[in-house]
Fold these 2 entries.
Entry 1:
Amino acid sequence: MKIKNICCIGAGYVGGPTMAVIAQKCPKVKVTVVDINEQRIQLWNDPDVNNIPVYEPGLSEIVEEARGRNLFFSTDVEKAIDEADMIFISVNTPTKTYGIGKGMAADLKWIELCARQIAEVSKSDKIVIEKSTLPVRTAAALKDILDSTGNGVKFQILSNPEFLAEGTAVEDLRNPDRVLIGGDIDSEEGREAMDALVNIYASWVPKEKILTTNVWSSELSKLTANAFLAQRVSSINAISELCEKTGADVNEVAKAVGMDSRVGPKFLKASVGFGGSCFQKDILNLVYIARSFNLQEVADYWEQVIIMNDHQKRRFAANMVRTMYNTVADKKIAILGWAFKKDTNDTRESAAIYVADYLLNEQAEILVYDPKVTAEQIYSDLDYLGSRSNDANRQAVTVVNDPMQACKGAHAIAVLTEWDEFRQLDWQEVYDNMLKPAFLFDGRRLLRPDTKREIGFEFYAIGN
Ligand code: NAD
Ligand code: UDX
């Protein structure tokens, strides 16, 4: 089957970059990305390509090349569904905030809405692809809904989870470790649908990196991959606390352990805690699924990864307060970095939000600088926690667009995102403009301790 028209529902951090790369690599396929969020679509269509709503290195160049040629962004969801022979569902699947499974299960209401709309609008056979991260066996529910209209239209459902990491999305999409496609391998129609998707990716991904599996393995592999990655971060963060008590250095331990080829060096960087829209949500979901099958030990095992991560964020903030003579009330604290990692403007579940909230509860005055995150986003992240009134957040937190301004007159600085530019700051000048003793807390192991201590900083780093 030759695919001519692709529709992607959801123009977010996954839908946008993924479809941009597909459009670039398959110039003969028309790719339309749709979203109900009008403002988001407007930004994707902004004549100034620097204003697209997702910041990723290299993305604006691809959008510039493909947009208007074979890449389109639109709010006309129905038209795009109707025209497409292949539909990616890439909508958000956050943790439920209400009802059964509140705080654990994935909220599938947007997924279900998509399925109902596809069922309603479709007049010709379609391949429907789960791009969103979903609980294992969601494809069965999708199939039920899609087949319920009884109008003779046939749907093939595939699972094609996305493994890109934010900040390196373009590189990850161009050069993936693997592409995973789950489908109905037992039927000819299923295999045909899988081949159609394999052929799209084979335009640029070597065939041996494209794995085909049954749907359930594909769905579960995605949750498992994120759980394994997050587990490595929590493991090294657990060791970082022990390092701080014993005089071992977590970077040296990570290097020594990671050089074992069975362990490998990646994802062993101690930090103030992992953030991002995926790790916590996907592990909670895995825990919820395990509990729902009564697999208590399995659930508890994975839940510990989250418990450790919450502890790491809290202990970093608590250590700041303790170090500063047990009070930060009315003290000025500069937070450098608000994004959950460098090279993205995404702040979902960022450790910075929780550290700031802790310090605000201690009545600190906070100044924030992040090169890519807007003041509006920072306030909205704090407001969302509901720890104090929106006004109180605006009174206690000032967002600035110059790191020097954030640090001027501060009692302490906390580095919470590993933006490269923080290494290059004139740290002597920063020090000169701070109150003394000048406290510097590095939540990312970004800065060299020796040079900072030489300048005169009271310097603390995770795991050091
Ligand atoms: P996102 O919130 O950035 O984007 C989702 C978009 O879907 C939003 O713009 C929303 O308006 C839109 N949407 C929701 N319901 C819709 C509907 N019925 N019709 C049209 N549009 C609708 O989310 P994201 O980060 O792109 O994540 C999407 C999925 O991909 C999630 O399941 C996530 O777990 C998974 N995922 C995310 C990442 C990542 O790094 N962000 C990586 C891999 C997988
Ligand atoms: C993750 C997965 O890596 C990706 O495959 C999946 O598709 C989506 O979820 P993402 O959350 O975008 O990607 O970024 P990632 O690089 O995994 O970082 C997640 C968090 O862990 C960040 O806050 C990062 O700073 C932190 N981290 C990562 C560490 O603290 N130490 C590490 O060694 C690695």
Entry 2:
Amino acid sequence: MPSSLDAHLRSALDADEGQRRIAEAIRHLCTASVKVRNQIIEGGSNLGEQRGDTNTDGDVQKELDVLADRAFLQAAKDSGFMFFGSEEQEGPVTLDENGDFAIAIDPLDGSSNISTNVSIGTIFSILPVSDANRADPKTVFMQKGANQLAAGFFVYGPQLQLVLTVGDGTHVFLFSPKFGGFVEQTASVTIADKAKEFSVNMSNYRHWDTHIRNYVDDLLAGEEGPRERDFGMRYVGSLVADAYRILQRGGVFLYPSDGRKGYQNGRLRLMYEANPVAMLVEQAGGAATDGTTRILDIEPEGLHVRTPLVFGSKREVERIGRYIADPD
Ligand code: AHM
Ligand code: MG
């Protein structure tokens, strides 16, 4: 009999009432993820269809973006969370004045892949709510990622998986319809120290700063270049899928800032993409930066701010930092 997520939560989050409430919230998020998965499996072809509305990014919302947002909003309500901050909502939603926690969430990550039947996901970050946050709610999503109490993502792919950390390592759980819940697939993931693959949207090459181009040029030069070995490239375009692959077999992911309008801080969102991925990666022995600064130390200016993002095998992330800080 495989070990269940429930057993993991009971042993990892049992120190006090607050921890038990976080465990309960993770169970509610799992319930929502199964609903979203069922909608993906059964929902027919209209899930990738565009609705009339746009989200905070100006992206036209797809049917599944809205379904996922609703499912996870309900999970947050059921969890007794005080605030819900979603990519699909303009500002923080207050749910329960007496709640102690807040959730920042990307309900449907990888929207552009919905209609292509490629892995997509949900990314979440659970944060504490302080008295100062209660007095001035907009500050709840202005706390740095180092404050996260738990972080994770669901992957809706060939398998439904939960990649989770509550600060005691990064663990992978697989949804088993036979078992009727999530069971442990990998306890304590460790990211390989040596990167053999890189993950970046190469079509943006011409928009990057010179130091990023130099770094990627050196990878592409392979055996004949300064790295004296060949690198493979993989880029799914769903952060959850690229992050999961790196957790499994190492490598490095980059979404740097670039010269396009609106990309001066890259594309990815700090509160519900970079922070949770950074916590998972660090808990697995890897590193995550904006190029030079540790992601978890960034003081955010608000729920929807973006950040350049580099994460993966620690040595490789540090190497990229040197290309940026010391381009010669
Ligand atoms: P989304 O949350 O609206 O789907 O956008 C985020 C996605 C990430 O999953 C992925 O890493 C990135 O955007 C891909 O961007 P691009 O298409 O510019 O390479
Ligand atoms: Mg996303």
